[in-house]
């Protein structure tokens, strides 16, 4: 296959590659290996930390990825771009959160630590929904002396609004009824993807992205051939050029056929 015929395809993980129960449909796995065999470049674009999807990278043999919603980008196993959180603002946010009894988890590329004992009910419930094997431990000073790419703030829906007003260095994106992602302002999967595109040089008509979540809207709006999953909410589907079937109904396989990447 000539370079001009090759495409670059980005896949979100949760609700896109993985079903609700965090299993990978066999049709998805086969479709991805067919793409790779046909010479296409396959990458992941996720809100997850690198250590939260090591197993799926190994299973699908993918070593190019945008993690932390664009803050930590790896191309062929090498770190290409990082965008850490503003440390002073994070310290101020932590003090504020402690006063409101809202726990925080700090995350770098290798680990995550909670500023309260991780048995806290909000933490337990929301982290359990990710079905990850990584063990969360307690270190209230984990922000000292290292770059962090995301934090998780645990609060009820609506309670993040005061933080949004007071901390302009951050974007707050809710991912669970009990928790919001805290990210560098303006960081997104689209920004991280752009770093890979710049390096690899694929024209826009050869770029594809599949996603289902609110954190995929920038990516789906930005990528020329964007596909929303059938299980995505209307706002996400409206941002995409195409809508495929649900992840539960072989959505990746059908979507790749729809856009002509699979015969």
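^ structure tokens above, recovered residues below v
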């Amino acid at each position: 296959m000539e370079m001009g015929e090759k495409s670059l395809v980005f896949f979100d993980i949760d609700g896109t590659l993985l079903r609700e129960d965090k299993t990978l449909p066999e049709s998805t796995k086969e479709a991805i290996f067919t793409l790779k065999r046909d010479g296409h470049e396959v990458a992941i674009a996720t809100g997850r930390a690198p250590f939260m999807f090591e197993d799926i990278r190994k299973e699908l043999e993918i070593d190019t990825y945008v993690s932390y919603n664009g803050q930590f980008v790896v191309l062929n196993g090498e770190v290409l771009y990082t965008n850490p959180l503003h440390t002073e603002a994070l310290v101020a946010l932590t003090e504020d959160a402690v006063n409101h009894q809202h726990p925080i988890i700090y995350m770098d590329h290798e680990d995550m630590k909670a500023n309260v004992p991780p048995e806290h009910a909000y933490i337990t419930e929301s982290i359990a929904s990710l079905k990850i094997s990584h063990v969360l431990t307690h270190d209230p000073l984990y922000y000292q002396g290292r770059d962090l790419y995301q934090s998780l703030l645990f609060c009820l829906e609506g309670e993040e609004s005061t933080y949004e007003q007071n901390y302009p260095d951050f974007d707050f994106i809710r991912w669970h009824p009990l928790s919001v992602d805290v990210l560098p302002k303006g960081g997104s999967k689209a920004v991280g993807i752009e770093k890979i595109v710049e390096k690899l040089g694929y024209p826009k008509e050869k770029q594809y992205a599949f996603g289902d979540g609110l954190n995929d809207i920038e990516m789906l709006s930005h990528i020329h051939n964007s596909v929303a999953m059938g299980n995505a909410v209307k706002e996400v589907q409206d941002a995409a050029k195409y809508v495929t079937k649900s992840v539960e109904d072989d959505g990746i396989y059908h979507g790749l056929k729809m856009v002509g990447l699979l015969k």
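The chain has two domains: 3-82+187-258, 87-184.
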